[in-house]
């Protein structure tokens, strides 16, 4: 009985780890959100069973994955980015707590903070925080506090889930909160469709960020007081001597 929880990285299998590919090859069953399953469809051979569902069906997918593994099959639950960063590893452990003999193997992937930062340059060289603007599972009041305190502490801030049709003004709210402690001229950047077709990136100032064309497939980076633009790349110095 083995259940892999596999982080796929940003979606292009060039950025998947060898361990992730090996887990998919070893598995009899592949479970995941339908968009992510399609990203690795070319890695799934015909004899494998595929279980995919739409968004907001996370608990259902996890139950199916656990049931398949308990029946003796080797299963890969796949998710984008890193399985342990806004991924499915946590809920799998919670739902499988009554099955201590079930072997759960978390396979790390490249989370959007790291893959997006690489596109923009080197914005995460010093301390940073990662905050999701989705209030589906976290109250907005708590998100506001995390934004405010991260800005006050002069962290570089990486934002996941910055905007959607229902949350069209959340990024604007987040920018206004951070500008209480960050300069409006703070260098920022964002990357959409990291590692996938249609990837685009842009560097701008914090005061301009809220008006950019940004969606749920975009990862946003807000610099700290030391962040600068060097030859078109976003860089946060760490303060090495001799520079």
**How does CATH name the architecture of the largest domain?**
2-Layer Sandwich
Count of the domains: 2
Which consecutive residue ranges, at least 5 long each, have pLDDT under 50? none
Tell me the name of the CATH class of the largest domain. Answer: Alpha Beta
E-strand count: 13
How far apart the termini lie comes to 54 Å
Describe the main β-sheet briefly: 5 strands, parallel
What's the shape?
elongated
Integer average pLDDT:
95
The number of helical elements comes to: 8
Spatial order of the strands forming the largest sheet? 3-2-4-1-5
Helix amount: 25-40%
Q: If you had to describe this structure to a student in words, what would you say it looks like?
A:
The N and C termini lie far apart (54 Å). Helices cover 29% and strands 26% of the residues. Strand 7, helix 6 and strand 8 (156-160) form a beta-alpha-beta unit. The protein is an alpha/beta fold and 243 residues long.
List the helices and strands and how they pair.
Elements: E1 2-7, H1 18-26, E2 29-33, H2 34-39, E3 49-53, H3 58-70, E4 74-79, H4 89-95, E5 103-107, H5 112-120, E6 121-122, E7 128-132, H6 140-152, E8 156-160, H7 170-178, E9 187-192, E10 200-205, H8 206-209, E11 218-222, E12 228-230, E13 233-235
Parallel strand pairs: 1-4, 1-5, 2-3, 2-4, 6-13, 7-8
Antiparallel strand pairs: 8-11, 9-10, 9-11, 12-13
